[in-house]
Amino acid sequence: MTNEAVNNLTDFPVPPFKKQPQSSPGLASQMNPVPDHGETSYTGHGRLSGKKALITGGDSGIGRAAAIAFAREGADVAIGYLPEEESDAQEVIELIQKEGRKAIALPGDIRSEEFCTELVERAVAELGGLDVLVNNAGRQQYCSSIRDLTTEAFDATFKTNVYALFWITKAALRHLPKGASIINTSSVQAYDPSDILLDYAQTKACIAAFTKSLAKQLGPEGIRVNAVAPGPYWTPLQPSGGQPQEKLTQFGEKAPLGRPGQPVEIAPLYVLLASDETPFTSGQVWCSDGGTGTL
After folding, report:
1. Fewest beta carbons less than 10 Å away: which of 10, 107, 219, 270?
2. Where is this region: Disordered (predicted)?
């Protein structure tokens, strides 16, 4: 974010929003309003100078905001994303390159263990190493009743949100040095699940437990593991099946700040956890939910 004072009640979009259905996985460029990922609003201060980072889901939403922030803080960045998200991804690649940093595009489907391993190996080879892993890519599709939740959909959510996290982290550990940081994206849904997000909420609870357990494993190796738990954030997950359109129009209104968060607002948490400024912080889940106080 910039150094200018921010008014939480007037400087950001508030509901009601227009209905805007998209097919999954959705594109940030087609949202109204277009999310603020920090394209013009994030100012870096060299806090990640020389670091090399891999961010999954780096084409849009929170992953995009983290990628932009990391580059402006001095890191080289590789982003993973689905091939359908190429147009959004290329915008991110250009933004990273404008900062004079190395930008690596790695399209593919992380529901494949083979691709997850390839993703890490290509990132390491092209970046010349790996210091920070951000497991951020996620699948969210609402379903009103367990009676209608298919095994195929349930499996797709767990493969994307949990299995890929396991596969990518395991592959990355062959390369992460002492002092490295792993940052996972959980959710307030892990602690206060919505009735229509049964499978998604379960995966986010898995991520919180994974984070705490792995932090205990890797602590003796000098590798920190933390998670960020977003509340309602304005990202392509929401209009592309993450929420019913009638709920999307009022998305974020129940937060005490009366609006959804913009991705740029959570990027500083990822920067802090990736930096060398929090060497004693591991096994934590940091929440940003607009004042609800879920965690």
Report:
1. 10
2. 1-46
**What is the maximum span of the chain, computed from C-alpha positions, in angstroms?**
51
pTM higher than 0.85 for the full model? yes
Specify whether the CB–CB gap between 47 and 275 falls below 8 A. Answer: yes
pLDDT confidence bin for 11, thresholds 50/70/90 = confident
Average pLDDT over the chain, rounded to whole?
96
What are all long-range contacts of 108-113, with beta carbons under 8 Å and residues at least 24 apart?
Answer: 108/80, 108/82, 108/83, 109/82, 109/83, 110/56, 110/80, 110/137, 110/159, 110/160, 110/164, 110/167, 110/168, 111/156, 111/159, 111/160, 111/163, 111/164, 113/163, 113/167
Among candidate residues 63, 47, 45, 168, the one with its CA nearest the CA of residue 116: 168
* Catalytic sites, residue numbers: 200
CATH number among 2.140.10.10, 3.10.20.30, 3.40.50.720, 3.20.20.10, domain 44-288:
3.40.50.720
Over residues 130-151, the mean pLDDT reads: 98
Domain range list for the chain: 44-288
Rounded average pLDDT over 168-178 = 98
The candidate with the shortest Cα–Cα distance to 167, out of 227, 107, 116, 122, is 116
**pLDDT score of 9:** 66
Could you give the CA distance from residue 142 to residue 206 in angstroms, rounded to a whole number? 18
